[in-house]
Amino acid sequence: MNNYSLIISNPHDSGPSLKIDLLNVKKAAMIIRAVNHKLRQQILKLIDDHGKITVTELYVKLRLEQSVASQHLAILRKAGFVNTTRDGKFIYYSVNVDRMKDLHKFVEQLLN
Predict the structure, then answer these.
(1) Rounded to whole angstroms, how far apart are CA atoms 31 and 55?
(2) How many other C-beta atoms are found inside a 10 Å radius of the C-beta of residue 67?
(3) 41 found inside a domain
(4) How much of the chain, in percent, has pLDDT values that exceed 70?
C-alpha cells in the first residue's frame, strides 16, 4: 500500500484485487462535507426557493457577513452544487440540480 491507494484482496473471489484510490475517496468526502453543513443547507434551500440569487441578496436574507456568505458559496461551487451566471455586474447563483441528483443516487447506493 502506498499513500494514495489501498489494495484489498478477496479470499472468496479468484478475481483481481480491489484497488481503492484514496485521493478519490478524499475528494468524495470533501464533496459530501460541502453539503453536510447547516448553513450551506440553508443557502441551498434559499437559492432553490428563489431559483437564482446574488451573494448580496443571500447575505442580507440570512443575516450574514458578506465574506461568510461568499466563503460558503465558494465551497458549494467547488463541490459543484451551485452554478454561477453573470448578468452585467451581477453574479447569480443557482442550484445544480443534476449534481444534487448525483449526490442523492450516491448516498442511496452507499446506504443500501
Answers:
(1) 21
(2) 10
(3) yes
(4) 96
Judge whether 4 lies within some domain: no
- Taking the C-alpha atoms of residue 14 and residue 12, their distance in angstroms, rounded to an integer, is 7
CA pair distance 5, 24, nearest whole angstrom? 9
**CATH number of the domain within which 40 lies:** 1.10.10.10
Q: What are the helix (H) ranges across the chain?
A: 22-35, 38-50, 55-62, 66-78, 97-111
Residue 80 has which C-alpha cell?
Answer: 459543484
Q: What angle, rounded to 10 degrees, do the helices at 38-50 and 22-35 form?
A: 70
76: in domain: yes
Q: What is the pLDDT of residue 101?
A: 98
- What pTM was estimated for this model as a whole? 0.86
Cell of 97: 440540480
Q: Which three cell numbers stand for residue 61?
A: 436574507
Phi, psi of 54 (to 5 degrees): -90, 165
